[in-house]
Amino acid sequence: MSKLVIVTHPSLKDSLINRIWVAELANHSEALEIHSLYEKYPDLNFDVAAEQELLSKYDEIVFQFPLHWFNVPFALKKYIDEVLAYGWAFGPGGDKMKGKKIRFAVSTGGTKETYESKITLDDLLKPMAVSFHYCGCELLPSHVFYGASSQPEEDAVVSNAKEYASNILS
Ligand SMILES: Cc1cc2nc3c(=O)[nH]c(=O)nc-3n(C[C@H](O)[C@H](O)[C@H](O)COP(=O)(O)O)c2cc1C
């Protein structure tokens, strides 16, 4: 397995986009590991050492999440704050994320047009992107499903999920 996908969704069973994304990725378990933060840590008390060890094993890491209040879900922010620690991901001796490839896979309620006018999704993800750059990571293009609040057809989501899998496996 060469790639790790860290999924942050508070209720995957009630989800449409992230659930279908995970189901599609699960067909490629020989090539990637899916790590669902809320499933592993329902109380969000992360085992920082275990998470750092997991991240260390992979050169390419995807962070998959729904956009919440124009930001990453708070659980992912907590994860970044705690796991990308001083002396591990940055600061003296903090080179453990250096050289890793990072990608975001994001679902939004708002339509593509919403994010093409004043503030784009790239603008919103900038603090995350800068944080990973700061840790010496390389950012790969994001994969996005826009318009989850517009009751998308399941076929459209499945087709987007296949594109997602093909992007990260290529
Ligand atoms: C607490 C909360 C905040 C949200 N904030 C935004 C937002 O700021 N912008 C947006 O486009 N969608 C927002 N949404 C919609 C979600 O992004 C959307 O429901 C999700 O991406 C759909 O994915 P899912 O089917 O996997 O749950 C929000 C949803 C929730 C529950």
Describe the structure.
- By secondary structure, this protein is an alpha/beta fold.
- It has a single domain, classed as Rossmann fold (3-Layer(aba) Sandwich), CATH 3.40.50.
- Helices cover 37% and strands 17% of the residues.
- The chain is built from six helices and six strands.
- Strands 1, 2, 3, 4, 5 and 6 form a six-stranded parallel sheet that branches.
- Strand 1, helix 1 and strand 2 form a beta-alpha-beta unit.
- Helix 1 crosses helix 6 (154-169).
- The model has no long low-confidence stretch (mean pLDDT 97).
- Bound molecules: flavin mononucleotide (FMN).
- Residues 9, 15-18, 66-70, 107-110, 148-149 line the site of flavin mononucleotide.
Write the layout of secondary structure elements.
Elements: E1 3-7, H1 17-26, E2 32-36, H2 37-40, H3 48-56, E3 60-66, H4 74-83, E4 101-107, H5 121-134, E5 138-139, E6 143-145, H6 154-169
Parallel strand pairs: 1-2, 1-3, 3-4, 4-5, 4-6
Helix pairs in contact: 1-6
The site of flavin mononucleotide has 16 residues, from helix 1.
C-alpha-based Rg, rounded = 15 Å
Order of helices and strands: EHEHHEHEHEEH
| CATH homology-level superfamily | Flavodoxin domain
**Unreliable residue runs:** none
Secondary structural class: alpha/beta
Number of domains: 1
Main traits of this protein?
170 residues; alpha/beta; Rossmann fold; six-stranded parallel sheet; 37% helix; globular
Summarize the structure.
The protein contains six helices and six strands; from the N terminus they run βαβααβαβαββα.
